[in-house]
Amino acid sequence: MARVDAPESPRPVPGADGLVTNRPGLCLAIYVADCAAVYLADREVQAIGLVHAGKKGAELGIVTEAIATMRKAFGTDPANLVVQVAPCIRPPNYEVDFAAEIVRQAREAGVRDISTAAPAPPPTRRNTTPTAAKEAAPDVSLLWPQSLRSIQN
């Protein structure tokens, strides 16, 4: 877990699967593929976190570590956190539902406001023409809870 304090030019933080900051105007970014990006936002102290969590990260408690880091660094009370688990691979397309484990760990840490993207539908054969793909595109605005939208200043 890395604490980001300065708005330096964009650069990777080696060895970090999570970033936290309380600096206004800083944008945190991570790369994910099938894993989940987990967004954490503290409504009271205006601190944020972003972690890369997959099967191994969930097993190692990366979200719990991010919450503990935010508590120690910024005084975050987990009850004031909004946690959003972004879309990721899940059953039936993957053998482990690490998103459910992330939610369990966040609740156990005291987080009350947790949202996840809907589980992936079972694989089906579909028309992949450009028109069909455009029509089938999900409305991503539905993935972000109102509580996250409300803390934007």
What would you say this structure looks like, in words?
27% of the residues lie in helices and 18% in strands. With 153 residues, it is an alpha/beta fold. It has a 6-stranded mixed β-sheet with strand order 1-2-4-3-5-6.
Estimated share of beta-strand residues:
15-25%
The overall average pLDDT, rounded, is 81
State the low-pLDDT regions, or none: 132-153
How would you write the strand order of the largest sheet?
1-2-4-3-5-6
**Would you count the extended β strands for me?**
6
SSE succession: EEEEHHEHEHH
Report the span from N to C terminus: 26 Å
What's the shape? globular
- Percent helix range: 25-40%
Which value, in Å, is the CA radius of gyration? 16 Å
> Which sheet architecture does the biggest sheet show?
6 strands, mixed
